[in-house]
Amino acid sequence: MGEIEEQFDFNFSFVDNHYEGETKVCNKCDKELPLSCFGFHSASNYLRPECKKCNNKLAKLRKQLKEIYGMPPLGYLCPICGGSEEEVKGKGNKLNGAWVLDHCHEEDTFRGWLCHKCNRGIGCFNDNINRLINATNYLTPNKIFKQMKTYKIKITDEQGNTNILEITSTDIEWSMKQYQRPRKPFTWEIQEEKDNL
């Protein structure tokens, strides 16, 4: 090798030699394992929270659930943020598209489809409802309640039948999308709007 080649003779080995002796606790099996037992997040340089063995089990479970439940229908909206496929695509793992199969980690059952951001969000709270309530309570006096308004909405179905609905919301457009999703088509208009403060 010439002098310049010797200076740039790098070893690009991906063996985790620098992790020898270091350990991490898997967030699924709760075992303390060497760091070499953990894979890297795709396209990143940090380790996954679950060990490779648990990650393989999760991959198999997700595959089985996808075979049973398929993909969400056209026009599907994330049940947490209300984002459409067009709005949420490209915000996470590009291999999986816009939607992530969400499942209960205690019972290994299908819960639904979420966008990547919302899936990561509830994952950061360890799917713990009390933590999510605490987060909501923390935000409420500072932001959410001040932004909420109470609306009287006139709803008209396809047959011309009308109904008045009262909704308190920070985003009436999003709330009405969520209200309409499981129902037959209808039109709506705001009859009255008032601030909560």
Please, could you describe this protein's structure?
There is one protein chain. By secondary structure, the chain is an alpha+beta fold. It has 3 domains: 18-69, Wheat Germ Agglutinin (Isolectin 2), domain 1, CATH 3.30.60; 71-127, His-Me finger endonucleases (His-Me finger endonuclease fold, 3-Layer(aba) Sandwich), CATH 3.40.1800.10; 148-195. It is elongated and about 70 Å long. The chain starts with a helix and ends with a strand. The strands form 3 sheets. The protein has a 3-stranded antiparallel β-sheet. The chain has a two-stranded antiparallel ribbon with strand order 1-2. A hairpin with a 4-residue loop joins strand 3 (99-104) and strand 4 (109-115). Mean pLDDT is 78; it is low at 1-19. It is 32% helix and 23% strand.
Keywords:
disordered N terminus; Wheat Germ Agglutinin (Isolectin 2), domain 1; His-Me finger endonuclease fold; 3 domains; 197 residues; three-stranded antiparallel beta sheet; elongated
Span between termini = 77 Å
For the biggest sheet, the summary is:
3 strands, antiparallel
CATH superfamily of the largest domain: His-Me finger endonucleases
Radius of gyration: 24 Å
Average pLDDT, rounded to a whole number, is 78
Q: Based on CA inertia axes, which overall geometry fits?
A: elongated
Helix amount: 25-40%
According to CATH, what is the class of the largest domain?
Alpha Beta
Secondary-structure class: alpha+beta
Low-confidence stretches: 1-19
The CATH level-2 architecture of the largest domain is identified as: 3-Layer(aba) Sandwich
Trace the largest sheet across and list its strands.
6-5-7
Looking at the structure, the CATH topology of the largest domain is His-Me finger endonuclease fold
